[in-house]
Protein 1
Amino acid sequence: MIEQINNPVVEVHDLMVSYGQNPVLWNIDLTLPAGNLIGILGPNGAGKSTLIKAIMGLVEANSGYSKIFDQDLNHVRNRVSYVPQRESVDWDFPASALDIVMMGTYHHLGLFKRPGKKEKELAMDCLQKVNMKAFAKRQISELSGGQQQRVFIARALAQQADIYFMDEPFAGVDMSTEKALVSLFQEMTATGKTVIVVHHDIYSAGKYFNWLIMLNMHLIASGPTEKVLTEDLLTKTYGGKLSMLTDIGELIKKSDFNPLKN
Amino acid sequence: MSFDPNAFIIILTGSMIAISCGLLGVFLMLRKMAMTGDAISHAVLPGIVIAFLISGSRHGLAMVIGAGLVGIIATVFIEYLSNKVKLQSDASIGITFTSLFAIGIIMITFLANQIDLDQDCVLYGEIAYVPIDLWITGSGTIMGPRVTYLSLINLTLVSLFIYLFFKELKISTFDKEFAATIGLSTVGVNYGLMGMVSYTTVSSFEAVGAILVVALMVVPPATAFLWTKNLKRLIQLTVALGILASFLGYYLAFFLNSSIAGAMASVAGFFFFLSVILNRKQIPAIKKKLSKMKVA
């Protein structure tokens, strides 16, 4: 069940990504509507993070392309924000929560310019939105995992983008914070922004998102939550027979045949 | 003790070198690339020799360019080995710099009869000669100690580099992926930093040698990191420690009648261990680590 739409904010066409000889994503073809809170679901190793990394140009695609606002990412970087997984950085870095959020204002500044009062005020507002204003001066190494996650989201807010890609923003976050973040994301989508979230929990996904992408190395489903959250598609995403693609990967590794190299 | 102009020149030069190294070292340490700095400082040796052969002088622009290029080549090679060949990063560093260094040693010994350059000079340097190595212009005017000028230029350029690209260095050090998504050339920042490390090594090797340059790059930032978790404070403290090491190192060497560069590095090392002991928070953490190691 893959629903394609007109005038998408994100368009992925024929995308294929592999790490070395191991294919991770096969033939992904999808279009995403504006103003939605979109969840990416799938088991471990399904390529959820890889999909958004490929869209953000952080991993190289073997084939295919992706477009944002019908343009190449390089032309619209100011309108796109990316929140990496919390564990991808070293939180011992000497900086305060405010320092990190200020980084969200850097791309508007350009070379040689330093963030000033205006940027600081914006950063404080963003910290306020994730309920972290009281921790602005705190060293990031002294924050809890959930607080660090909220600092990352505040940094994304400071980018004042139109599309947000978030890689597991709820990892290590307690339930009340998760709910607060979801309603923050819902407020954002209500003003026309698009928020795309890599998510683990099938049960809460139905409540949080109004559009779902289901992924297991290839695209199982992409569409409005009420249409795609079916037992059949969930089994296809998480269950049984879908190890076929992994088997193909194994076969490629064993034989000398490698379709990824010419 | 009366004012000794030679002592002043040596301490001034030593301080400027220590500050340049420390400024770059802060970012090397935060990027977990302290050993890459070590590798570059050794790998530039063939660059130094080739530049020497071409230009025929131990100073000047050719030297800086030659070593800078080899330093960047070393960085490219290390990243190629660890990212594309998928070799462990420490092994990549070990292979790259020892190979380049070995080539440099062969070149020096091979050409020993023809050129005025030897291993001792490159590896150990001698800051004590700084006051007598004068820069004399074509018309015969004595401008003062040559290496002091070199280290002043080096310090100016390093400070300018850090000042102008502070934002970019900070963001690409903390979160490389995020930096890339806002359109920053993280590769460019990396090569810029490595280029500055190469240049600083070359500029300093006559005074402190290619080996002790590494001590000045790694030890003061690591010491400062034990005391502060604020990037600007970390840089200030590193600078202060560099000056202190130079000052105390000189007098230590004076009383021991020994190598000044060696004494500078020893003083820096002494401050590091003193900080470890004084930093109470660190003591339980170290004990924890030690007990874990015993169990393992």
Note: Chain B touches chain A through 26 residues (CB under 8 Å).
Protein 2
Amino acid sequence: MAKIVAVTGNEAVANALRQVNPDVCAAYPITPQTDMMQRFASFVSDGKVDTEIILVESEHSAMSACIGAAAGGGRVVTATSSQGLALMWEMLFIAAGTRLPIVMPVVNRALSSPLNIHGDHSDAMGARDSGWIQLWSENAQEAYDNTIQAFRIAEHMDIRLPVMVCLDGFITSHSIERIEYLEDDEVKNFAGEYQQLYPLLDVDNPKSYGPLILPDLYMEYKRAQHEVMTRVSKFVLDVAADFEKLSGRKYGLFESYRLDDAEIALVILNSAAGTAKDVVDEFRDKGIKAGLLKPRLFRPFPYEEVASALKSAKAICVMDRADSFGGFGPMYMEIASAMMLNGSRPILINKIYGLGGRDFMPEHAQMVISELDEIAKGGKIKTFKEYIGVRE
Amino acid sequence: MTTSLTLKELSKKEDLFTHGHRMCSGCGAPIAVKQILLASDYPIVASNATGCLEVSSCISQYTAWKIPWIHSAFENAAATISGVETMYRALRKKGKIDKEIKFIAFGGDGGTYDIGFQSLSGAMERWHDMLYVCYDNGAYMNTGIQRSSATPLGADTTTSPAGSVIPGKLQPRKNMTKIMAAHGIPYVAQASPAHWKDLMTKVRKALEIKGPKFINVIAPCNRGWRSKTDDAILLSRLAADTCYWPLYEVENGVYKINYKPKEKKPVVDFLRPQGRFKHLFARENEWLLQKGQEDVDREWESLLKEAGAE
């Protein structure tokens, strides 16, 4: 029986973590994640979870402690944002390379400099190549649902990889939304008992973690990591199917919104997709065949599936809430790669929007869709990469 | 039944840090690690900071560790073992583990005094039930003898080379053991593989105490110290006899000197066999030798005072 509540994204994710009841949580405060771990710390203090919490002295130590705890042989969580994720960067690769199923909500926030505490995707995009699975969430409901599913994906015996659950700082983390909570028992059963694999705490069967691997074998390790990533999307879908049976909410590798016959399309992540979908509807009402693709699984990226979903589009705008300075936005590069696999060559433009919490307004989406409409009709391409919503 | 600390009894125990590791011959660190693991009658789970000990003890499918062992990075041996120890508490609480297990983190001086200092300080403050062991060879030996904050005054290293203008490292070393004592943790000690019984007694004592513990062990490195391959134990002994490396412990804030040389030798006795100090014996560098002796004398006096043993 679902329970309908009005809560913030941080509160919803903290509640998902309470329901999953991990063995160990390591946490360090950083805006806008802080409130999530504060809530979780209250669950610990009030005996609502069995979790042992460690309040470490940095995010670097948070991830290091998570690595030790996960190797120990149990379920582990932490959460962070922005500079915290950047400070963890070294350890992210080690968590993934050691194949430890750690789950980490990332409340997306801009990176310094200049200092800015508001929502954008630079933090998680910077961790793109770390070997973590990344699930992205449009709103608090998706963040809650993704967090619950993340444990099943991470801990699957054929995967054993860490998972990041991304949600937009402030826009999602601090806004109150309508959420459907699952019952505690339902989540507990869905997550299941943690299954150990080579636990470090098994002193009768000692294992060495973290060897030195020289050029004779290093590449084989990396190929194994690549290969496991190629199998992830299947399990993400399996877990989503089970989750749908439980919740009635359907998840895929991405969301296709009015894409079937779309001639122009937006690709956009997280909260801004909600705004953009409304604008797509407006254009559809005017007879313009617009559609939208909202990625959910960003790592591993489902290139073939995305290419197939976008096959009818003649002009696509990839919207990035992060930049790769001197290159295109990170999402643009993925979509460009996907379209190459497709063999189709739609016109692909890139807009950088919403950095450091700059509002993404319906008029921004209107402007972009109008521009795409012109391009699809044979109009001139103004520029391939452009910042929108900026003061001149 | 605990094994008595006699060579006869200890020789019957299995070495948990085995032959086949690739530490340099004559290195002090594996001797200390063997002694530490032999001292315990409890099962041990260890973490290891990146460094000589780590890169030489677990390569590909070959491991010298017969205990569960984890290495993750350079600056976080304490944070990593704090995670393992926390998982142990979580699983023990749930009845999934019933054994009494002890936790040890090993780090070199670079991984302890410098890059790992924050994570060590944090783990101690969080009061994890763990022992942190620093094997102090006084420089970044693994990367090729670069100066660290444990490098003694005047030492010639690859990043504080004794040149025609600058005579080696110009700063004294950090007093890490005292800094750890200042954390107010229940047990801190300084030890040496030359005084093996003292070291092993300290390890035993530490493992019986709940909470965070720190032991600093001198670990001569013949490559970095430019000393004879078989001088590790001799130099460890000279370090104690000159009071360059006093053997003492701080238990619940109470200082105790464990070894007081009958006759305190001059520091030059410890410096002379080491090529890294060769330049200090040139006339123009006499002031450094003098300052080094003064530093040791002052520290020793202060230690005597702390221990009420003046």
Note: The two ends of chain A are 52 Å apart (CA to CA).
Protein 3
Amino acid sequence: MSRFRVLRPGPLSLLQDGGRHGWQHLGVSPAGPLDPHAAAWANRLLGNRRGAALLEIALGGLQLECLDDGWLALCGADVPIRLDGVPRPNWSRFAVRAGQRLELGFARSGQRVYLAVPGGFRGEPVLGSLACQAREGLGGLHGDGSPLREGDLLAGGLGDFPGAASVPWPFVPDYRASRPLRVVPAAGQEEVLQGFVARSWRLSPQSDRMGARLSGEALRLPPCEWSQGMVRGAIQVPPDGQPIILQADRQTVGGYPVLGYLHPLDCGRLAQCPAHAELRFVATDLETVQQEWRAFLRFFAC
Amino acid sequence: MIELRPAGPEALLLVLAERPEPGLPLRIARLAEMLRAQLGAELTDLVPGWNSLLLHYDLLRTDHRRLAERLRPLLDAWQARPGEEGGGRLHEIPIWYAGEDLPEVAAGCGLSVTEVIALHSGRTYQVGVIGFAPGFAYLSELDERLALPRRATPRTRVPAGSLAIAERQTAVYPQASPGGWHLIGRCPWRLFDARREPPCPLAVGDRVRFVAIDEAAFRREGGRP
């Protein structure tokens, strides 16, 4: 076992895993990492399955004391990483020794960085999952949806690796580069989607793990819908015309009309954008998104 | 005519009727049971809406086209099934009608507090949708004499166990949460507990009656005023 004591939790550090699936009919949100790409790579560097429990660290600021020799991996937002004051690379795994102190600075680009340990962090699952859902009070290290706190004790497996390793560079995204996010139109909403992609949007600071709120020139959609099941990535348009893109902690049902669905990998990309970022969108088709997402799931299904 | 609409790369929405109807929630619950039994390995979550059922599927096992093919005979069989007499399971939920908005609700409806309680506890409701929060069951249909719009400003914190009304619906808040409905009573029971099996006693299609109790009974049932 390799253990870590939390010296400083940072602004918001959450235990997440593949998500709390199978309970949406009771209103339980799946939760899980906001950025599936960075989270999957952090686990893969340590030979973990994709849904192994890891830390999602918003903005950085985490400090851990290593209580045992072991390994860890970090992927995601560009934060300065220091082990006993010596820089360590992001998108990499490296060894740690008992007594060493890991310090994360604050993000220079990107918003969330993922920290994984061999075998995943241990904890008592709630409804089959450790994913921390603050609003519902479920999951996390204490089982009650609370974020990481100073003094918390984390434990993972040991692992045995030939040496440090990094994610191949073509898979390391540049979160500074702005590229349009891809959207599949909802049935019958092709025209509204044209209006949506033609506008430029800003990411509102009111965004959270539940939804990314956009601000811009209002869209108009008839408010006809009866509450129905909702998916991550759904772009809802409430009566004020300012879209909300549902993220990992989304509600399971909703009554606002939906204009389209964001590509799951671009949901992760969106989660790495800072507040007030300018966002652009582009239309794509369902088959293309399914092909790419299936390839992603297959690649990380080890 | 049932409509199948892809909802992103991993979900398919079945629109089962043009609008909500009495009896439809129970039929949707039966359809969900049937699909879970027949297609369980391909589906991760089945989420009933007022007139729909959302199927979250495993993209490594199926997709919307293959699913649609397998669904066709199952949906035909479901449509041919007669509705059930009597409806779903009946729950009797004790309520201490002492919500902080009760006097305001009575005034807004032009009724006495006693009349509001009699109208609210005098009918059987049906669980239409569970959502908003874990175990939050939207119950219909509230007597139209009690129908009020939501509060202009939602409360930032509604206490757990609050019985509330808005428009033609009523519900008990299972956990403390923000909320814009009118609070008319208190339920002493916990309606969602992740450590219980099942975590929530209510299911879509079930029926609910509220039974008026006094403060002493509320305390006996475990309620904390």
Note: The radius of gyration of chain B is 19 Å.
